[in-house]
Amino acid sequence: GAGVSQSPSNKVTEKGKDVELRCDPISGHTALYWYRQSLGQGLEFLIYFQGNSAPDKSGLPSDRFSAERTGGSVSTLTIQRTQQEDSAVYLCASSPLRGWFQETQYFGPGTRLLVL
Amino acid sequence: GENVEQHPSTLSVQEGDSAVIKCTYSDSASNYFPWYKQELGKRPQLIIDIRSNVGEKKDQRIAVTLNKTAKHFSLHITETQPEDSAVYFCAAYAGGTSYGKLTFGQGTILTVHP
Q: Could you read off the pLDDT of B35-65 as tens digits, one per residue?
């Protein structure tokens, strides 16, 4: 079946502009995650949605970052007033996550963001 | 919260040799440990995982071992091939207050020389 998809695949923006990144999870997956990966670095957790529960925003680096998940499916990560240090690959992942039993997270291809 | 340390950060081997990557975790409640492979410019993909009720799991040339007492787990790749070259990430899941969240290691860059 279809995997996790993200758009755009690449985004170049000017410092100070707002950007929106989109994630379409695997159909039926209740959990959705956003990560940031800077060049040559590991996976930095940003935010996590699970069903209708309040999202876990503990990884968001500043109040310029926000995310929504509409109807328990598509998610949008918004970065306001972008800074050069926001340049990175933004990865989305989804998981079935049933009960306490952790399931595999499936990653999307990422959005490469470059802030000039 | 959970903390995962991964070593080494880089690993260079000759084709045909074995490669071992080690991770330690801090939360004794952790019960799920996946390993992801990320090729250059690609998405991370699960290659193997292990749950806390077993000590070892194998899948062809790759294996993962878990020592719950010492709180560490390792990835073993035998008969390495150039296409094994990638960044490998370990992760741990503790549940509880970290419900649903994986904590990732910093990654190991594996280079297999022909």
A: 999 999 899 999 999 988 889 999 999 999 9
Q: Nearest 5°: phi and psi at A57?
A: -100, 15
CB contact under 8 A, A105 and B95: no
Cα angle A106, B44, B68 (rounded to 5 degrees) comes to 80
Dump pLDDT digits (tens) for A6-28. Answer: 999 999 999 999 999 999 999 98
Distance from CA of B107 to the nearest CA of A (A): 6
End-to-end Cα distance, chain A: 37
- Measured CA to CA, the distance from residue B77 to residue B84 in angstroms comes to 9
In angstroms, what separates the C-alpha of A45 from chain B's closest C-alpha?
Answer: 8
Question: Which chain A residues have a beta carbon less than 8 Å from that of B106?
Answer: 41-42
Decide if B89 and A102 are in contact by the 8 Å CB cutoff.
Answer: no
**Does the CA dihedral B6-A3-A79-A51 come out positive or negative?**
negative
**Residue of A42, A105, A106 with shortest CB distance to B106:** A42
Of B31, B43, B100, the CB nearest to A107: B43
Cβ atoms B57, B50 nearer than 8 A:
yes
The SS3 of residue B4 is: strand
3-state secondary structure B45-95: EEEEEEECCCCEEEECCEEEEEECCCCEEEEEECCCCHHHCEEEEEEEEEE
